[in-house]
Amino acid sequence: MEAINWHGFFFLFFAIVACAFAMAVVVADNIVRMACYLVVSLGAVAGLYFLAQAEFLGAVQLMVYVGGTMVLLVFGVMLTARGPLASMRTGGGQWIMAAIAGGALLAMLLQAAFSVSDWAAPKTIQEQAAVEGSPSARLGLGLMGVRVDQLEQPNLMLRRGMSGHLLAFEIISVHLVVVLVGAAYLARAKRRLDHKQAKDDQRP
Amino acid sequence: MNLLAQPVGLPHYLVVSAILFVCGVVCMATKRNMLGVLMGIELVLNGANLNFVAFGSPMLRAGPSDGLGLDGQLIALFVIVLAAAEAAVALAIALNFYHTHATVDVDRGEELKG
Amino acid sequence: MELSETLPLLLGLAWLLPLASFVLIVFFGPRMGRGGYYAAYLATAAIMASFALSVVALAGWLAAHPLTAAAHGAHAAAASAAVSGDWYSLGEFGPLRITIGYYIDSLTLAMFCMVTLVASCIHVYSFGYMHGELSDVIDTLAPLANGQPVRRRGRFCRFFQYLSLFCFSMLGLVVAGNVAMVFVFWELVGICSYLLIGFWHERKSASNAANKAFIVNRVGDFGMIIGLMVLWTGMGTFSFGDYQTVNAKGDTVTKPGIFSQVRPGPNHRLQVPNGMVKMAARREIEKIAAHAPTINGDLPLRRASAAMMTWAAVKKWRAQGYGYGLLVVAGLGIFCGCVGKSAQFPLHVWLPDAMEGPTPVSALIHAATMVAAGVYLVGRFYPVFTPEVLLVIACVGCITLFLAATIALTATDIKRVLAYSTVSQLGFMMLALGLGGWLAGMFHLLTHAFFKSLLFLCSGSVIHSCGTNEMPRMGGLRKKMPYTATTMLIGCLAIAGAGLPGTVVGLSGFFSKDYIVAQDLSFWGANPRLGGPLYCAALIGAGMTAFYMFRLWYMTFAGQPRDEAVHHHAHESPRGMTVPLMILALLAVVAAWNVPGTNFGIEPLLTQAQPAGTAEGLAHGRMWPNVTVPAEHLSHSPAIHARAEWAAFGTALLGFLLATVLYGLRKWDPEDVRRTFAPLHRFLVHKWWFDELYALVFVRPVLRLSGWVAILDKQGLDWLADNSARAVAAVARLDDWIDRIFVDAPVNLTARWTYAFALRLRVLQTGNIRQYVLWLAAGAVALFVLMSLYWNYAVAGI
User: Is the CB of residue B43 less than 8 Å from the CB of residue B27?
Assistant: First the structure.
């Protein structure tokens, strides 16, 4: 027996966890259980990020997605938890249609994934080249406008075109502010339950 | 197992992201609870993110092209941030919906029915 | 003031007073007293005032133009003095001047006095005669559709209104200074006649008679208009006398009137006027104008030289006879109008029917004045007539007098007898005028007015008292109506021409008829072949006149009453009706006498008015060169005059004796005579079948033609109109169908399809979010498949 490819082993582990719990999210009926399964799935995805040498991103995934977005979703679940939660089932016919559509999509994607020869995995295990520098440092510098991985580009023109992502960073920040303000407005407290009254409130 | 012996390449990641993506789509298509739909959206986004990260990973690079490099991770970073923003807005919409319809059943939101 | 100013003023006022009366009665008549009684006073006052003014005017004239004794055997003097001018100019259209003008000579004044005097008497008479119109009238001769007699309001004031209008029209005709004005008033008297004949228009007979009178007059007027047209184009003016105009340079020039153009001074011989010559010689004038010498083609000079050559050639052309035919046509045209107005053959049929009007109307209009207007116009136009025209006039008059006298022999309606008598006497006048006896004709006109109106008023008196017109139902009325009987006897004697020949003792008709017969004899002498029948006819006519007039008198007043009811009811007329009778009777006696000790009388007055140049007679007309119209004074020579006197007296006496034997003494039975001459009698009773002939020749073809035209209109035109309307409607329906099927349908169909499609598409909008997601996924798959199939990209790798 050859040496276990621990990289591969952990990849498989995290991949199966992510996929299984994703499928559990689909299958589950109870919304709270769905939320829990999703949390686990997203955590597994963070692990996959780590394995792909995107440590910073994995950390961000855990912090923002799992710690933030999912908490948000759970809050939402709790806020809308009145009323009949369990009786919302979809009919079998719809399941089948969804399954067909999903199956077709999956087939297409898999087919595409395996069709490009450039993407094929190397035949032998080889030492993965160590990455110079920490990825987070490179990310940070890139966000501030410095493309660390393209510093050696001899062509001046190409180098000029490769600016950093400072602008995108700024835009995203502003965007976040706007979105959060908007979301706060949208979800402000109003009198509820009377459709007509609700519509009246919605008029500016 | 073969997979364990073989080195992990791009296709593996692509398969996982495809599965996540499809699960997300099916979840969006079948869940009647609006928050379930939102969860499906999260799954989709994660699948796409994984794709980006896979293509930007130096380890999985093969061939003459260098892949996305740092861009892949950056894109994934932005996507995460935007996904969070979008989740906030989506939740606000869901709460609004809940206020007006007294339920989160997506099937009740048929006002646009022609 | 100058005579030329006073005369127009006086006569103009006399003319307009009846018009003022007419206007006032039109507006205020019904309000003047009960039933409009005082309207009659107004009308009578107006006409009496007119008479007074006429007398004053006559006196003024006589002061300026003293009368000389009637000149027997001497040539008539120079041109008659006439006052002519214009009161008001209505418009000048180039050379055409339409004016209201006057032409006043002693004939005008005599006519004025006669018309106003007779009209005054008749106005007074009408007070009594039309008394029945003061209250509601039940007219038994006018049945309604259900057989009941009509009941209507009285029309007393309207009668006088029409009478005033008539007097205005008649006086206007007499005073008129130009032919256009004559024509206007000609028609106006025709209208008044129509209104008055149809006064009792609820009676079908009366309204038919009114129509007949007007239409027959119109036929005559047609000829008159032709004559007027020829006169206008030939002479360039309508005016009788000379008139003044302002020419282009601003000077006042005197232009010649009609009389001066046909009989220019100094000898006043008849000649074709320049205008007519030029009209007839148009071709010659064109030739001259084409060949006139010029200098270098100078146009005005050429025109001037052409004009000079034309003027020089006019005399030559006149001698060659150019334009003579036009003059004849002008004369005949004017005479045509007179034929209609004076009821000459063949347009005499209206006058007997005109007796449907009230008797005062018959007396005024159809005896004394309107029918005399025709004779008056012939007298006025005398200078224009050529010998041919005069002969035609004479022949027409002769036929008329004979025809009417024969019909009067057998008529039984008292007014019909008098109507035919009027026609016959008018024939006498025309005969006289045609034979050259201007004085005789005009004299008879004036005397006839008096005794004929007297006769009519007497008959009216009889009708008023008996209630019937039919003589066979009368008889023996002289004891019951002495005044009427006496005055009527005087009238009959006057019309028969009673008098002692060889002396100056005689009634008015004696003298005037003698002049006519004398002129006839003179004509016979001048024209041996033509004159014979004319003379004999005149004498026979005179005899018949005496016969039927006395027949009338005997049947009405003498003998035993034939109808007791009528006789019982008969009564003398009131004073208001008998006094005019007496006045007129007096006039009928003395009209022909000169006022003793002076020269004033009708005859000298008329002699003054004789148109210049006409007293010498006419001869050698171009078309009939053998006709000689003798000078009138020749007939006054003792030889001719005495023979004529005795001849006329003889025939009249014969007639009188025959009438006395048949109707007075009843020696012979008229019925027996009638049986013997039955076919002749029937022929005469049916008025020579003239009415039937006219109905056959004129009325029925017109009715048939109008029937055809009506059919054409109803079937043809109406059918066309209706069916074209239907065709249009059908086309409209077709268009509608096309529009609906081919235009609307596609549009509607498109709209429906769009809607149906949209309805079906609606299904896609389920509002179901989850389904949308599925579609998204399916779409992504499909897109990818398509891409991979058609886009040769390494990613697909299929």
Answer: yes
* Residue A148 clears pLDDT 80, i.e. is over it: no
β C149-152/C137-143 pair status: antiparallel
Q: What is the pLDDT of residues C751-760, one digit of tens each?
A: 999 999 999 9
In angstroms, the separation between the Cα of residue C746 and the nearest Cα of chain A is 41
Across the interface, whether the CB atoms of B32 and C764 are under 8 A apart is answered no
Test B92 with A187 for CB contact under 8 angstroms: yes
Q: Any idea which fold B9-60+68-102 has?
A: Helix Hairpins (1.10.287)
Q: Do A123 and C798 form a contact (C-beta atoms < 8 A)? A: no
Residue B33 phi/psi, 5-degree rounding, is -80, 130
Touching subunits of B (3+ CB pairs, under 8 Å) are A, C
Contact assessment for residue A38 and residue A25, using Cβ atoms and an 8 Å cutoff:
yes
**C138 beta partners:** C151
Rounded distance between C-alpha atoms, residue C121 and residue C457, angstroms: 10
Q: What percent of chain C has pLDDT over 90?
A: 42
Helix (H) or strand (E) holding C689: none
CA–CA gap between residue C469 and residue C457 (Å, rounded) = 13
Residue type, C740: R
**Cβ count within 10 A of residue C374:** 25
Contact A89, B32 (CB under 8 A): yes
Q: CB-based contacts of B60: which residues, under 8 Å, 6+ apart?
A: A52, A121, B8, B9, B10, B13, B54, B67
Both tokens of A95, joined, read 């399941």
C-alpha B73: how far from chain center: 15
End-to-end CA distance of chain B: 55
| Domain residue limits, chain B | 9-60+68-102
Using the beta-carbon criterion (under 8 Å), do A104 and C770 form an inter-chain contact?
A: no
Dihedral of alpha carbons A117, A119, A124, A128, sign = positive
B interface mutation test: which of C761, C773, C775 has the most B CBs within 10 A? C773
Using CB atoms within 10 A of its CB, is residue A200 exposed (0-12), middle (13-18) or buried (19+)? exposed
- Decide if C351 contacts C419 (C-beta within 8 A): yes
pLDDT recorded at residue C79: 47
CA-based nearest residue to C171, from C181, C160, C161, C159: C181
Distance CA C25, CA C39 (A): 6
Cis peptide before C266 (omega within 30 of 0): yes
Looking at chain C, which residue has its C-alpha nearest residue B21? C777
- Nearest residue to C363 (alpha-carbon basis) of C185, C157, C588: C588
B65 pLDDT above the threshold of 70: no
Mutate to test the interface with A, among C774, C783, C786, C789 (most CBs of A within 10 A): C774
What per-residue confidence (pLDDT) applies to A87? 60
- CA C141/CA C151 separation, integer angstroms: 11
- Alpha-carbon distance of C495 to C548, in angstroms, equals 11
Q: Does C304 touch chain A (CB under 8 A)?
A: no
CATH number for A1-81 (one of 1.20.1440.230, 1.20.120.1200, 3.20.20.140, 2.120.10.30): it is 1.20.120.1200
Distances (CA, A) of C48 to C29, C109, C157, C166: 19, 15, 18, 15
Give me chain C's average pLDDT, please. Answer: 87
Q: Are C645 and C501 in contact (CB under 8 A)?
A: yes
Closest CA to C203 of C271, C138, C267, C142: C142
- pLDDT band per the 50, 70, 90 thresholds, residue B1: very low
Chain A touched by C769 (CB under 8 Å) = no
- Amino acid identity for residue C71 in this structure: A
pLDDT tens digits along C65-120: 877 765 544 444 444 578 888 888 888 877 778 889 999 988 999 999 999 999 99
C325-335 per-position pLDDT tens digit = 889 999 999 99
